[in-house]
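Reviewers of the previous submission asked for a worked example of the structure-prediction workflow described in the proposal, so we include one complete record here. The input consisted solely of the amino acid sequence. No template or homolog information was supplied to the procedure at any stage.
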Amino acid sequence: MTETQAQSQSQGEGGGGGESASEQGRRPSRRALIGWGGAGLAFGAVAAGGAMAVATSGDGTEASGADAGGAVEFHGAHQAGIATPVQDRLHFAAFDVKTDDRAEFVQMLKDWTAAARRMTAGKTVGEGAYGGLAEAPPDDTGEALGLKPSRLTLTIGFGPSLFEKFGLADKRPAALVDLPKFPGDNLDRTRTGGDLCIQACADDPQVAVHAIRNLARIGFGKVAIRWSQLGFGKTSSTTPGSQTPRNLFGFKDGTRNIAGTETDRLKKFVWVGDGDTGTKDAWMTGGSYLVARRIRMNVETWDRTSLQEQEDVFGRDKGEGAPVGKAKEHDEPFLKAMKPDAHVRLAHPDANGGITILRRGYSFTDGTDGLGRLDAGLFFLAYQRDVRKGFIPLQRKLSAHDALNEYIQHVGSAVFAIPPGVRDANDWWGRTLLSEEA
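From that input alone, the workflow returned the following structure tokens.
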């Protein structure tokens, strides 16, 4: 949401720009075929080329986002889908591991990598959706036939519970901590945790859903989806100079989110460095840590709240997005001019020792709750160098004092270690963790 804690930095306070509303409305062309309580939060506070040529790198350092139909480079020092220009749509899935066979699990990760490499390039999985042996299921489910790559990125993460399997206990990073229970949390166990996660972002929702569907199919018998979330209308951006997107409360979100071109800030706040790891977790160098939170928004109550109170809650005006007492969105905020419980004031890096995270949140609507209220809100995604120094201290502060708590509640949660990128055609997801040679 707008500056949800964890990143209010982003929103007004420590993050980076947004993407244009016109971009959000684009749809790639075809090729040829076809609640509520007080959980403070990380809402707003707290990512093109042509189909034949890659115009943006996985780490976002050359991100133009000019062509919504283009492909994003899969290989790189860091996984794509973090600093990459934020796409319009999300399909996020958490998986439980069902096999006890380490070799079988490793082979699945290699198969997943091969499939991800092809899908992000706009190709079908394996031998494709038709033309193969009639008596056997095809390698690809086929619903993305004729669609452009749509800037699809696939990002994998490993949850704390994975390190209880396959003899990996001594490889669990110190920074991969279980999140504490925050005041106001009302977590649904069916939307919390997971051994693995896959974040699929694309400008076409069918491309994102196709990717998760095919990875789940390839992993059948070895992994099973624990929970998933569809998202639309990105609520933050990693593209400098573009229009800041708005969350479902109608406020601009991510005013100062970290941009994909800000290599110094990415290095300082997002990527795990050599000095962050010891012998047991050196495999995480070049990776990051992800906190995913499903934040329910009490939109009916919000919609009956006066404009003045709405602006007081955030510490920004609703039209321009300017901080209290300022004229423009990107004017430096004067925190003391805001109410003591204003979201921006509490989440700003200047009020938190400089804490900064990178957000890639999406709005969601999942029907109603059976009482005539929309099940709607923000699916908050925050990347950081160390969860203990990023999301946790921010959320503790916000959940205790943020005026937004009256209108939101955290109902789902997970944390994942995001390994470094796949370097080349011979590399695979998780190699630095699971390969004895590595």
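The first helix runs from residue 8 to 13. We consider this example representative of the routine output the project will generate in years two and three.
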